[in-house]
Structures are given as C-alpha cells and as structure tokens.
Amino acid sequence: MTLPLEPAATAVVVGAGLAGVRTAMELRDQGFAGRLVLFGDEARAYDRPPLSKEALLDGDLPAGAELLTAATAAEHKVNFRPGVGVARLDRAARRVIATDGSETPYDVLVLATGGAARTLPHLPADNARVFLLRTVEDARALAGALQPGRRLLVMGGGWLGLEAATAALARGVKATLVDQADRLCARSVPAEVSTYLHTLHHAQGLNVRLGAPCRVERADDGRILLGGDSAHPFDLCLVAIGMTPNDGLARAAGLACDNGVLADPAGQTDDSAIFAVGDVAAWFDPALGRHHRLESWQSAKVQARRVAARLLGRTDAAAEAPWFWSEQGGRMIQAAGLADPASRLIGFEDGDRPLWRYGRGETVDLVVGVDRARDLRMAHRALSQQRRAVEEQPV
Ligand SMILES: Cc1cc2nc3c(=O)[nH]c(=O)nc-3n(C[C@H](O)[C@H](O)[C@H](O)COP(=O)(O)OP(=O)(O)OC[C@H]3O[C@@H](n4cnc5c(N)ncnc54)[C@H](O)[C@@H]3O)c2cc1C
C-alpha cells in the first residue's frame, strides 16, 4: 500500500475503545479527508480507567467518560457503527465483513480490538458472586454487589485488583486480596514499590495474602471458598488476573500474532494495509529489541496519534516513553518508563510522597512516584527524549 493515504481513500477502524476512537479523531484532526468508518461491538464508546475507580463508588460511569457521541462522530464525519462488530477480514479483497452481514471495503485498516478479562475456567463469572472488570456492565454489576459488611475476595494483586479493593473498602466491604506472586504488581514495578503498596493497603484494612498458589472454589450454596476453608467463605469474588488481547480476528486472517498483533515500531503489521493500536497491539520496541504490548491508556493514545500521522505521511508524531497512573488507597501512583530486569534502584526520596528511580549506571529507565505529578511529568519528558534518540538511530 502506498502512503500517504489518498484524499479519496477509505480508512476502517475496528474497535471503538480509546485506541480506535483516538485513531479516527486523529485522522480527521491531522487532515484526512477520505471516508472513515469506525466499528465498535459495544453499545457505546467509553473510557475504561473510571471502571475500577469512580464507577465502583457511584455505580456507573462518570459524566465525561463517553469517548464518542453521535454528534461528535457526525461533526468529524466518522461513520460510527456502535453495536456492530467485525466478524471477518477479507485481506485479499481488502474488505471487512461485519456481524450484521454488511461488507465494507478499505484502503487501510486499523485494528484496535483491545482485550478481554482473563477468566478462570472453573470459576465462570455469573455477576451474582463472581465478577470480572473490563466493561461498563462488569463495573455496574460489581458496584451493585459491593454492599457494606459483605466479604470480597479479590484474585490478583495487580493495579486493577488493588483499585477495586480500595473502592470495596470505601464501600464498607471486607476485602481480602490473594496472588500467587510473592509481591504486588510484580509484572510492572520493582520490589521496593511493591513493598510500599503492600504497606499502604494493609494500613487501610486490606487483608493481603501473597506467595501461595490459591485454590478458589464455590461452596454448595454458591459462596466462594479459598483453599477449601468453608469456615470463612466469601460472598463475592473479583477475578482480576489480567487480560488477553482480542487478536482472534487478526489470527483468523493470517496476520502475525504472538500475545497480540505484531507490528513494526510505528504500528504496521505484516500486511502493509493493516495497522494495530492499543491493548491488542505488540509493536516492535527498538529500546527493548523485541515486540512489546502495553496495556495503558497513554500508550493507546500515543499509538493512535502516531499511526494517524504515519498514514498521512507526517513525521511530527514523536515517540513517547510509557507512562502509567493508578489511584489507590487515596494516593496517585505514577510510573514513567519501563522496568528492566537488569535495572537497579539508583535514587530514592523517602517520606510521605516517595519517589524511586531505577536504571543501569547513570541511565534512568523507570521513575515511580506517589503524589509526585510534577516530578513524573519531568521524568516522562526526559525519558521520552531518550527514547526518541534510540528510535532515530540507524538500524
Ligand atoms: C477497569 C480498568 C481500569 C484501568 N485503569 C487504568 C489506569 O488507571 N491507568 C492506565 O494507564 N490504564 C488503565 N487501564 C487500561 C486502559 O484503559 C487500556 O489500556 C485502554 O482502554 C486500551 O484501549 P483499547 O482501545 O486498546 O482497548 P479497549 O478499551 O479494550 O477497546 C477495544 C474495543 O474494541 C471492541 N472490539 C473487540 N473486537 C471487536 C470486533 N471484532 N469488532 C468491533 N469491535 C471490537 C471491544 O469490545 C472494545 O470496545 C484500565 C483498564 C481497565 C479495564
């Protein structure tokens, strides 16, 4: 496929989460004049971070979480098809076949199909006692069940599980969190930050049990047992054990996938007419020397901007270092950069608002701070410059 896109071209975006909506809006904002179709299999397009925060406290998404209204879509001349999924890709004919049977040809296709909550086969979600947390329906169901005095078991000591546990405690629910890893958020932050999180949540009344394989099952009356302990059943269980990328559509169409749709450092897959963005996309990361999939709001937004720029032949959408935030226990935790197993703690500011710097030698590659928005902004800027220097190096 030849880029930049012709003014009369058709761009089709599959998935109306943050990455898909931002891709469509960026294409328009950056000057694309062609036909733009956005398919989303959910009834509406909304932001997910509030689902584990405000929505669990208030019972629904806050105003402002809507990503794309019919009016904004019309204003931007986006043919937004909420509630219509894409069932199949016909790469040879360059068209998508939707769940309503319609066929839409494309010149360029952007896959933004996100991910789905991982489930436990022996503990299927029923929205009565067992819950997941990925969609607005999940959040509403869980929020409705968080009644004072109930006992909640959170499976999974990652960001999502911890945020949900924070909300549950605020609602007067007794919460226990289990993880087979021996520390919290072990996949994304180093041990010192995990220790901080553990202390924070323990002080707020969360019962944290780590480091043991957890056998969770249902009692005859439907309640949840941990390790077969029928003396201390739980009323509710949240399964928060990560997500799996929705790469089935891409796989079925023969695109290269490996825990996500594989793409080059600017989002192009092994089919030159197909790009991938957001939680489903594993872009090649020159800094790491391998493909890497990020599950973060900022990454989805940056990738959307970069893909739109690439499609329009612009070179002004620079790479950014990863940046992530989480709100838990009344604190704002932010991380800029990526944890590298070879990195060591090279700087630490103690106190009520701690800050950790990790790196190799003098080179910082990850900064984590608690209620340190300004420091994290500066760190993110510096790490982004570092990243651009790596990406601009000739291969
Ligand atoms: C509860 C929760 C809290 C979070 N909190 C934070 C946070 O505090 N900070 C942070 O940085 N990140 C957070 N994240 C992560 C962030 O929200 C995601 O990284 C972001 O939503 C990714 O956007 P996406 O568009 O790639 O994927 P998604 O949001 O998953 O959107 C993909 C969309 O595509 C649709 N779709 C899938 N297949 C098809 C198909 N075949 N046809 C049409 N549509 C399809 C899906 O139904 C979905 O609507 C959170 C995520 C969750 C779930």
Folded structure, characterized:
This protein is of the alpha/beta class and 395 residues long. It contains nine helices and 27 strands. The chain has helices at residues 18-29, 54-58, 70-75, 136-145, 159-170, 191-203, 248-252, 297-311, 373-392, and strands spanning 10-14, 35-40, 45-46, 66-68, 79-82, 86-90, 95-98, 103-105, 108-111, 115-117, 130-131, 151-155, 174-179, 207-210, 216-218, 224-226, 236-239, 243-245, 261-263, 274-276, 281-285, 290-293, 323-328, 331-337, 344-349, 355-360, 363-370. The strands form eight sheets. Strands 5-2-1-9-20 form a five-stranded parallel β-sheet. The chain has a five-stranded parallel β-sheet with strand order 11-17-12-13-14, with helices on one face. A five-stranded antiparallel β-sheet has the order 23-24-27-26-25, with helices on both faces. Helix 1 packs parallel to helix 8 (297-311). The longest helix has 20 residues, at 373-392. It is globular and about 65 Å long. The two termini are 23 Å apart. The protein binds flavin-adenine dinucleotide (FAD).
